[in-house]
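User: Please go through the entry that follows and flag anything odd:
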Amino acid sequence: MAPYAIAHLKLGLKLYETGYTFDSNERARIFLTNTLEPPQEFSGQFQFVIEALAHEARAVNAVKRDQRFTVVIGNPPYSGISSNMMPYAQRLVDAYKVVDGEALNERKLWLQDDYVKFIRAAQVMIDSAGSGILGYITNHGYLDNPTFRGMRQSLITTFEDVKVLDLHGNANKKERAPDRSEDQNVFQIRQGVAIGLLSRVPTFDAGTAVSRSDLWGLEQYKTEWLAQHMVGTTQWSAIHPTSPFYLLAEQSQEHRDDYELGWKVTDAMPVTSAGFITARDHFVVDIDRSALEQRMNDFAASNLTDAEIRKRYFAKRGSDKYSAGDTRGWKLTKARKIVKNDALRRSRIRKCLYRPFDERFIYWATWMIDWPRPAVMGQMVAGGNVALITSRMTKGETFAHTQVTQNIAEVICMSPKTSNNGFVFPLWIYEEPAQLDLLRQHNAKRNMPGNRHPNFAPDFLDAVGNALNLELSPEDGLPADVTAYDIFNYIYAVLHSPEYRKRYAAFLKLDFPRIPLTTDLELFRVLAAFGSELVSLHLLQAPTLEKVASLYFGPNRPTVQSVSWSGSSVRIDGAAKKTPNREPIGFAPVPEEVWGFHVGGYQVCEKWLKDRKERQLFAGDISHYEKIVAVIKETLRIMNALDAAISVHGGWGSRVFESDGRHPDGGEAGLVI
């Protein structure tokens, strides 16, 4: 109502300045409505308390039903959890769920975001009119996010000219300008934004012209720039969106062909999911097992009321709809009864990978975890397993998204919240009564004995065997003299190659990584050996870690204050600058390349300490941190060594093998190293 009234006022004043006067029956043709609602026929059945609103509803329905629009402009809302979930609004985006004639293969379709619906509504309006222009400023996620590839294809099919001005400023991605200077948002919000200018003026020319421009810098600079520039004075760069992603973003095509011949890790290891989400980490996860046990004992205690538990553990974690701690799908009172009557309560505490090299304790029960991902986490709970963890794309980060675990893993074990989720790929799949159809089919095709089998697709194993010219074993489907661990370790090594990460950086930003296969059996075994070393190191099981160099200096049981690094020394004493003569506390030497080492979006040496701020470090904690430093040193050495080995055998992209047409993308050849 407020912008509706102000629009009338401003338009009336502007017309008055021109000398225009309204006749008594005239009105400014601005209507109060929801674009995402279709025209409705009230037929006298729907009554408004205020007659003026009834008149408005009838007028706007006539406009929606009878008029055509050739100009659509606006700044629609961005809301991933949309409030516009009427059937009509939901169906609007159905056209965006298809790309190249096939349904999107997505587990979650974030296409119900309000701004996406508004773009689709405008597209339908202009398509219906036959020509027109669309100008929106929206969330910029649709420009390159894989989920929106069907949307992008649809837009460039409808419009003859597509221009996007990416204003960036995405704090969630920690965006910075190309020169690494600060980049701010024009609206002082966290989500990056872009201006889309799309026109449909039918001509005899074939195809669609697509171009973009980028604006980086501080908010004031961007605002001033926008005030001084128009479409004709903006420098546009032509881009060429192509299948399968149809990106509205510049992307290097160098090495694309050989990269796409590799096996996407989800095709190679089909059983996967994102890590678990508790929705209440503060309560069910802890560094200290005894602290977690105490919380769960309190939770089950009959002498503590629900109100006391809420006050003690869930203060300020409520909402207008629910009591403190409660959510739509979880109620504290009900959960307390279950925990109290659970005979296995004490045995449900187990380890989980929470952050890189940071295992914590979790109370693992489906009635305390909102998204336990049982199909995958159950494979890890069974024990005797190991899992690869990687990300689907690297939003705002350089690809370093590879780690390994023997335990269940939390969803943001790879990168901070709103960035890149960690996806877990267990090596072994255990047969259970409620086994997935995919697993049954896999097992039946290979006739594999025993209660577990490797999580490798049969076609992928065929491709490995073809590449290495090895017969497949009828018992387990693996190439002769190659174990499941060999293949797992080979994949882990490839993903740690610095040259791989650099060569395919542009493509690793878009989707799950692809794994190239080598035709050189010797190189395969060399890389598998390097991968084995890395896995052993990253699980902190390498024999070399039994005795590591002592790095700590300071008193016993120090408390972590502020964390900093300078001159090969990590300091954890926050008062050092105020009292320079006090005894220093920290670790040394920690080389700069070790301090700056990332796993996913986390700077490991800094993150581990910062997560323990205001906590005491005991002897075991200090030893663990010293092992982390040793592991990173060895990891850097091995990463360089495996690149050297690849170079000796010919380098990336130096050989191609025939895959018998069984490559998942339908190609007849696959990349090898």
About this structure: The radius of gyration is 29 Å. Residues 433-449, 656-673 have pLDDT under 50 and may be disordered.
